[in-house]
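Appendix C: a fully annotated inverse folding record. The material below is reproduced so that readers can follow the format used throughout the book. The structure is listed first as tokens, followed by the designed sequence.
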């Protein structure tokens, strides 16, 4: 019995040593170095700022609204900064391609849901935006499985900018030294514009994905031949 126990301990020690050896291997270190770059760290920081924003704005006061707006602005700023740095330094990674849109959606959806809670935005706007994101995300997953990659269009980028500006206006609506009515109207109008671009870019993405698919390519080819 003692011999078997010793063999089991020796086997476990060997497995642990193999894991440490794998982590210390140049290949593993290269993968970790390639993914843990500045753009990906900025994206991760955006995700980490979302709970801070939620805690500040879940029970908004004038002071907490200002702090929430600052945190939301900082998180949104990393959205533009990480992409710029990744393209400039050639540090675009698969991890970044996955995390960046996820972080964007989490930030925007968190802001919209909290604005509904404090009754500063119409529910139908938020439902339409979240439904669009879910539908496009589903199509994007199907496209990725089929090896189809459709880059983000200009409409999608305008949508994100409008969403961020609209949410910021509505966050600051409760601040007394700012024009609350004008901020509410401005934020609502900007979010409606964002919704229009959101739906348009969503339909464009679905169409581009269909056209890049084998069925769409075949039908488009027949039309061009005809």
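Designed amino acids, in order:
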């Amino acid at each position: 019995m003692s011999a078997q126990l010793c063999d089991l301990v020796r086997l476990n020690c060997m497995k642990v040593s193999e894991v440490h050896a794998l982590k210390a291997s140049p290949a593993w270190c290269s993968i970790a170095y390639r993914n843990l770059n500045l753009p990906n760290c900025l994206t991760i920081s955006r995700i980490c700022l979302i709970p801070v924003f939620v805690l500040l704005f879940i029970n908004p006061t004038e002071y907490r609204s200002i702090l929430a707006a600052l945190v939301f602005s900082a998180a949104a700023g990393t959205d533009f900064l990480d992409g710029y740095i990744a393209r400039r330094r050639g540090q675009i990674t698969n991890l970044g391609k996955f995390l960046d849109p996820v972080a964007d959606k989490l930030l925007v959806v968190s802001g919209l849901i909290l604005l509904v809670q404090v009754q500063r935005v119409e529910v139908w706007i938020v439902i339409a935006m979240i439904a669009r994101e879910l539908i496009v995300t589903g199509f994007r997953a199907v496209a990725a499985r089929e090896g189809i990659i459709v880059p983000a269009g200009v409409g999608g980028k305008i949508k994100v900018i409008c969403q961020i500006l609209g949410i910021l206006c509505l966050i600051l609506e409760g601040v007394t030294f700012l024009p609350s009515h004008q901020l509410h109207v401005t934020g609502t109008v900007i979010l409606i514009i964002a919704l229009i671009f959101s739906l348009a870019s969503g339909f464009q993405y679905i169409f581009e994905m269909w056209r890049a698919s084998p069925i769409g390519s075949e039908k488009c080819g027949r039309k061009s031949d005809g």
